[in-house]
Amino acid sequence: MTISWFQAALLGLFACLSSMPGLGGTSIGNYTLGRPLVGGLVSGLILGDIQLGIICGVAMQLVYIALVTPGGTVSADVRAVSYIGIPLAMVAIKSQGIAVDSADAANLAKSMGTLVGTVGTVLFYGTATMNLLWQHVGWKAIEKGNFKKIYQVDFLYPWVSHIVFSFIPTLIMCKLGADAVTALKTALPMDGIPMKTLFTVGSLLPCVGIAILLKQIVEKATDFIPFFVGFTLAASLGLNLVSCAVISLIFAVLFYEIQMAKNIRAQATTSAAAFDDDDDEEDI
């Protein structure tokens, strides 16, 4: 598999769109197009192998399933993961002759995505830093009463930042990086220590993403029960993602009903206590 300049340009365009957190009220840009799960589908469509693209996207999404950017602080840039890491991982899997649906393919994709995601933080902060220039331009325009220029500051000038730090790096890295990945086929044989190391590290990376997710949502020991049930069912019965989603929906409904019952009981207790207080005041 090779990546042409036109395909690399399309990937760069989607990298620009996914780096815009305000695109569609944050529902289209960074929080949708920028996710590896969606980026895998887009990369698969562009490179002509949807199955491989989705497999790489799913594998990388596990690693970054709980990634958030509090206060603009990022540990990895999913934009780079989606539109640089996934295409390069697809090229690497094809060039190494790895079966698309194998565990080795998923592990290699995770390793590639993590490497590129760390490098992508430079692109993220570069975009944010360059956008500060347009902010100063906007303040000067306001001081001069030129309010029409604010539209340019909001909708036109940021594209320069995204082209410099999203489009061009994605274009170059996807095009030239694909050739480099293909050349590594002879330098790094499948049975060598470097490739085995990549597969081993890649198989452990989803644990990091799931651990971060658990840290955010688990408040007490009993919160682990739905996860243990889900993993047990998936491992023992071989359930697919649709079946797991249905089971998780059942758990969600059960927990919702239990919480509503608790709220009703608490309200009833509060009302009864208030009624008793009123009777005491009347007796006095």
UniProtKB/TrEMBL annotation:
EC number(s) reported in the record: 2.7.1.-
Subcellular location, record wording: Cell membrane
GO function terms (MF aspect): transferase activity
GO terms classed as biological process: phosphoenolpyruvate-dependent sugar phosphotransferase system
EC main group: transferase
Predominant subcellular localization, coarse grouping: membrane
Top-level taxon: Bacteria
Cellular-component GO terms for this entry: plasma membrane
UniProt-recorded name of the protein: Phosphotransferase system, IIC component
Source species: Streptococcus massiliensis
Annotated gene: manY_1
